[in-house]
Amino acid sequence: MAGNANSDDEFHDAIGEEITEKEATSTRQSEKDVDEIVEKQNQLALDDEAEQGAAGGDSIATPTTVDSELTIEELREREKDLSPEQLTANKEKADKLKVEGNELFKNDDAEGAAKTYTEALDICPSASSKERAVLYGNRAAAKIKLEANKAAIDDCTKAIELWPEYVRVLLRRAKLYEQEDKPDEALEDYKKVTEIDPGQQEAREAQIRLPPIINERNEKLKNEMMSSLKDLGNMILKPFGLSTQNFQMQQDPNTGSYSINFK
């Protein structure tokens, strides 16, 4: 299973992706034809939206911000009127935009890269799950550089929903969860990584490192809760000349529940 997760050379994301001269040449050769097809299709879509607006209908605005891509429902609605050839052209255009985004990312233009990935998501066919997953994973990497961790987690989640065995993005989200002080969620992602690829050393080490951190946090929270309960109890018992010192709390080792006895 691990081999399948890591052998999809077709689906590289922005981190560490290399573009060969052959790929670059192929892209340049097909670029003109693809652009013409997509431009024609996009112009028809814009004309249709203008007519809808004139008739009082709702039109779909073209996203201009980093992460305002079309919803999957909006994308599927647009695709209803597209031919197989147009869908293929859109996929090729999205692939080209991904390469452009990767170059921007490598050149430290994280914002430009994120916007380019968003453009690609708006035309990448809804049926191309892995390609869309990579675009979301790439945009998450760009958002990390922009210090937008919560938005990056959202993109990682979208990518994983499309491609549950996307190890690189599972690791990326796990690290983000740790940074956001969510060790429980991080541990779950590391466990999933190990299930998919038992050879991932980083995930195995995290499963040793995180449980003590989680237990320490839980113990601290429990002590804080008990302290708050004691303060509340003392406030209630004070009019009766009592305090929580008059009660003894014992934990059942079998069930973990507590019993309170008066002393």
Automatic annotation (TrEMBL):
GO terms for cellular component: cytosol. The keyword Transferase does not apply. The keyword Phosphoprotein applies. Residues 12-39, 73-83 have a biased composition (Basic and acidic residues). InterPro entries: TPR-like_helical_dom_sf, TPR_domain_protein, TPR_rpt. SUPFAM superfamilies: TPR-like. PROSITE patterns: TPR. Residues 1-94 are annotated as: Disordered. It holds the Pfam family TPR_1. Coiled coil: none annotated. Keywords: Phosphoprotein, Repeat, TPR repeat. TPR repeats lie at residues 167-200. Interacts with the GAP domain of NF1. Interacts (via TPR repeats) with HSP90AA1 and HSPA8. This is Tetratricopeptide repeat protein 1. The gene is Ttc1.
